[in-house]
Specification:
- There is one protein chain.
- With about 270 residues, this protein is an alpha/beta fold.
- It folds into two domains: about 180 residues, P-loop containing nucleotide triphosphate hydrolases (Rossmann fold, 3-Layer(aba) Sandwich); about 80 residues, no CATH class.
- It is built from ten helices and ten strands.
- The strands form two sheets. The protein has a six-stranded mixed sheet, sandwiched between helices. Strands 2-1-4-5 form a four-stranded antiparallel sheet, covered by helices on one side.
- A hairpin with a 2-residue loop joins β4 and β5.
- The two termini are about 30 Å apart.
């Protein structure tokens, strides 16, 4: 079977800065694939290109065999691609429930006029949507106790969980997570890692993530791709990538300190 996501020879430049240089990546259906690399390696540029915020100069992006390279972000979302962001992108003045409901917008059939009048089909669709989110996404992520709270009043770790909930409300086939545990304490990190595993195992959603926490990457990923200066320098299983000299050098500046490689002590 073809991979769920195929990234073929992507190149992206901003003036004289080569953010991506002929990057290719396959994400197998049902997998958790991680993209790692030092700061400035091109990880977020890759995510922004896959999700449609950037347009590559060369290369193609295929989702389930469909070329989405030139499709805008809403069209990619309708095909089953959802993402979270490195910096939380929630509507802080809205409640948790209302933020999550926005994730379903791409699948709603009600037109603008009917939604504004909130009558008939529009009302029934809204009620069904709320029930689905409350009984599915909110329970799944264990946030029922905060569903009516304003997002701005929540601690950082719960805001990250709400952003994940909004992405899940989009019913994605492929979920892109941009640094899902960044800024979290150890307990919050362990909870988020568990939810990511459950997203794959219980909901059948394929996950592509960018993350700096190497313990999390090594513990939950099936496949790891490593970028440095916009180019792929290694790919394989977490154990194999951890021992690659090019990867060690990219992180540490030398190739003789494998024991110091991030995640070495936490790898399974």
């Amino acid at each position: 079977m073809a991979p769920l996501l195929e990234v073929q020879g992507l190149s992206l430049a901003f003036g004289g800065v080569q953010a991506l240089d002929n990057v290719s990546l396959d994400v197998e259906e049902g997998s958790i694939t991680a993209v790692i690399g030092p700061n400035g390696a091109g990880k977020t540029s890759l995510f922004n290109t896959i999700s449609g915020f950037y347009r590559p100069q060369t290369g193609r992006i295929l989702l389930e065999g469909t070329d989405i390279t030139h499709r805008p972000p809403p069209k990619r979302a309708a095909l089953g691609l959802a993402r979270t962001f490195q910096n939380i992108a929630l509507f802080r003045g809205m409640t948790v429930l209302d933020n999550i409901k926005l994730g379903q917008h791409v699948h709603m059939k009600t037109g603008l006029l009917a939604a504004g009048l909130y009558l008939g089909w529009a009302q029934r669709e809204e009620i069904a949507l709320r029930e689905e989110i409350e009984h599915d996404v909110i329970d799944f992520l264990e946030i029922d106790h905060i569903r009516n709270a304003p997002v701005a009043a929540l601690p950082y770790g719960l805001q990250k969980r709400v952003e994940l909930a909004r992405a899940l409300a989009m019913k994605p086939r492929l979920l892109l997570l941009d640094e899902p545990v960044a800024g979290m304490n150890r307990e919050e990190t362990e909870d988020m890692a568990r939810f990511i595993l459950d997203v794959r195992e219980e909901r059948g959603i394929t996950v592509l993530l960018v993350e700096h926490d190497m313990d999390v990457v090594m513990d939950i990923s099936d496949h790891v791709a490593v970028l440095n200066f916009g180019r792929e320098i290694g790919a394989g299983s977490p154990a194999a990538v951890r021992d690659m000299p090019a990867v060690i050098e990219a992180y540490l500046g030398h190739a003789d300190a494998e024991a110091d490689m991030p995640g070495a002590s936490g790898a399974s």
